[in-house]
Amino acid sequence: MTETEITNLLKPRYKAYLEGAFRQIEPTKAAMEYRKQLLVKLLDRSQELHIRGIEDPELIFKTAIDELGDMSENLDKFEDREKNKGEIKRKVSMGTIIAMTIIALFGLLYVIAGATTGLWHPLWLVLLFGVFASATVLLTFAGVKLYKKKKMIPIRIMLVAIEVMLSVFAFLVLQILFKINGSWLVFLAMVGLIFGVDTAIAFLLGDKTKWIEFPIFIEVFCVMLYVILGIALDPLNHVASIWHPGWILCLAGAIVAIVELIVFLVNRARLKAKMEEEREEDFNQKTDESYWTEWDD
Q: Which of 26, 100, 170, 202 could connect to 207 by a Cys-Cys bridge, CB 3.0–4.6 Å?
């Protein structure tokens, strides 16, 4: 038989097999495309088997079908993948709709308030808040999608982006609305916030780096607090300076961080020694047992 004859003979049988198998799932467009792909795969495999010297059409048919595996299981997995795709698309669409709605509402509020009061400045902060809020919504929906895939590093980067936007907005509000001197200190606080949130996430997720991040956060927090208090209580404001002996705060943070790291390393060493001891005891028990059960013959 030629390859064309094999194809013409087996193609109707493959179609009949696939049509019967695919009746167990919903007749969607995706299912139809998948069914066509499997038919092409079966026909290609038939030609490969024929080229290798197999002439029996029945053997070719059975071999090609068997290589597809359990069709019921394959189709169940296919449906699950399609449902998950649909859920992700709905979530992305929902996130986009919510984000656009937020921008539209705050944009409308900005126009109405600006036209009514004539205070276009600083009311543009309302519009900016809407932009930041919509961006936060989009990042949140994307974070949910990434969390299901166990991709935690991108999620932590997204949280940093949210914290930066929050800090920028807080700075603009303090600077423009309340005209507070030193509003830029918000960005110093932002650094401590970023490290603090990331450390908290590491503990919540049981990340191996949590005991490394924690002492770093302690020192960063102490340094940022020292700088913020030093600038805020500067002698120019006729308040006693804490630059000295406030540096002790940084030293105390470093000491606490080092002590915490030492405790962690000691506990880790103890745990490792305990595990080694247990393995040694287990080995000795097995050795003793072999003493009573081992024979030369």
A: 202
pLDDT surpassing 80 at residue 278: no
Q: Is the pLDDT of residue 202 over 80?
A: yes
Cβ(203)–Cβ(210) below 8 Å: yes
Domain boundaries, the chain: 3-69, 184-297
Distances (CA, A) of 174 to 25, 177, 180: 59, 6, 6
Encode 162-180: b = buried (16+ Cβ within 10 Å), e = exposed. Answer: bbebebebebbbbbeeeee
* Spatial distance between the Cα atoms of 57 and 14, rounded to a whole number of angstroms: 12
Higher pLDDT, 12 or 6: 12
Q: Are 82 and 30 in contact (CB under 8 A)?
A: yes
pLDDT tens profile 109-142:
999 999 999 889 999 999 999 999 999 998 988 8
Global pTM? Answer: 0.58
CB-CB contact of 15 with 43 (8 Å)? no
3-state secondary structure the chain: CCHHHHHHHHHHHHHHHHHHHHHHCCCCHHHHHHHHHHHHHHHHHHHHHHHCCCCCHHHHHHHHHHHCCCHHHHHHHHHHHHHHHHHHHHHHHHHHHHHHHHHHHHHHHHHHHHHHHCCHHHHHHHHHHHHHHHHHHHHHHHHHHHHHCCCHHHHHHHHHHHHHHHHHHHHHHHHHHCCCCCCCHHHHHHHHHHHHHHHHHHHHHCCCCHHHHHHHHHHHHHHHHHHHHHHHCCHHHCCCCCHHHHHHHHHHHHHHHHHHHHHHHHHHHHHHHHHHHHHHHHHHHHHHHHHHHCCCC
**Residue at token pair 């989009």:** 138
